[in-house]
Amino acid sequence: MAVPKRKHSNSRTGKRRSHDRVKKRQIAYCPQCSSSVPTHTICPKCGYYQGRTVVEPVDE
Questions:
Q1: Number of domains in the chain
Q2: Strand intervals (E) in 1-60
Q3: How is residue 33 annotated by DSSP?
Q4: Confidence bin at 58 (pLDDT 50/70/90)
Q5: Where do the segments described as Disordered lie (predicted)?
Q6: The pLDDT of residue 19
Q7: Computed from CA positions of residues 7, 12, 14, 20, in that sequence, does the dihedral angle turn out positive or negative?
Q8: Domain span at residue 39?
């Protein structure tokens, strides 16, 4: 079985892990109702996505 000859330094481990963080979701604004919506998702208020109404909005 292959075993590492030497321990990886803390800085080398940190360099490897530098891209592992959780990134913030991008926020866009719905062109129909101007509410803030995460990108690539249907607007929960009006059901609008990519130029058309995909889902009928739920009235509460």
A1: 1
A2: 27-29, 36-38, 48-49, 52-53
A3: T
A4: low
A5: 1-24
A6: 94
A7: negative
A8: 23-60
